[in-house]
Amino acid sequence: MSNQDPQLNVPRRVVTGHDANGKSVFLSDGLVPVVRHLPGEGVGFYEIWNTAAMPAPVSATEAVEPTQLDLTVPPSANGTKIRINEFFPGHLDHRNLQSPIHRTESIDYGIVLEGEVVLVLDDSEVTLKAGDVVVQRGTDHAWANRSDKIARMAFILVDGQFTDGLRATLPQDMHVTRKGPDDNGDR
């Protein structure tokens, strides 16, 4: 879907860098370059930035737009990712969920920017409202916007690794979203 779609609230992204003399400059200022809208699922994704290593290499400029390299839910191995998701009302499935149940080997910081969204775990759920922050630590989870307004969240994802102790307690048929191409984003 185009960045010009009036239903989408595409965020502005400002990226800084350095010129040939080491002076601080703006490299870009405009709408995020990667926008995905899944109208059937009522979700919009806005890829802000990602890194593929830790510590993240900081260069004067970026040779390639990083958001166009990896569209998976979790960041790449040793990487980070920031995106904004919009959950549109009226798209709940028969389980009263808006996303598939999934788990990632990552630490995800979810910040509700506007509206409210329900975070559903295996045996409980919590309603998050604007200003709330959730620290998602590799648990099976799903999202649901059960209100009549758009819910908008910022997600900062940091690659992680399950400890052997935790992995031993997890079900064998985990819904782990792997770090690979062609994924539809944190839902």
Q: Could you tell me the strand content as a percent range?
A: 35-45%
Overall pLDDT level: 86
Low-confidence stretches: 180-187
**What is the class in the CATH system?**
Mainly Beta
Indicate the structural class.
mainly beta
Strand order of the largest sheet: 3-4-5-11-6-9
Number of strands: 11
The H/E string reads: EEEEEEEEEEEH
What is the CATH superfamily? Jelly Rolls
Classify the helix fraction into a percent range.
under 10%
Identify the overall geometry: globular
CATH fold-level label: Jelly Rolls
Give the name of the CATH architecture.
Answer: Sandwich
Gap between N and C termini: 18 Å
Largest sheet: 6 strands, antiparallel
* CA-atom Rg in angstroms: 17 Å
When the domains are counted, the total is 1
Total of helices = 1
The gist of it:
With 187 residues, the protein is mostly beta strands. The chain has one helix at residues 164-169, and strands at 12-18, 24-31, 34-38, 43-51, 80-87, 106-114, 116-120, 125-129, 133-137, 142-144, 151-159.
Describe this structure in words.
The protein has 187 residues and is mainly beta. The protein has a single domain, classed as Jelly Rolls (Sandwich), CATH 2.60.120.10. It has 1 helix and 11 strands, in the order E-E-E-E-E-E-E-E-E-E-E-H. The chain has one helix at 164-169; strands at 12-18, 24-31, 34-38, 43-51, 80-87, 106-114, 116-120, 125-129, 133-137, 142-144, 151-159. The strands form 3 sheets. The chain has a 6-stranded antiparallel sheet with strand order 3-4-5-11-6-9, with no helix packed on it. Strands 8-7-10 form a 3-stranded antiparallel sheet, with no helix packed on it. The chain has a two-stranded antiparallel ribbon with strand order 1-2. 27% of the residues are buried.
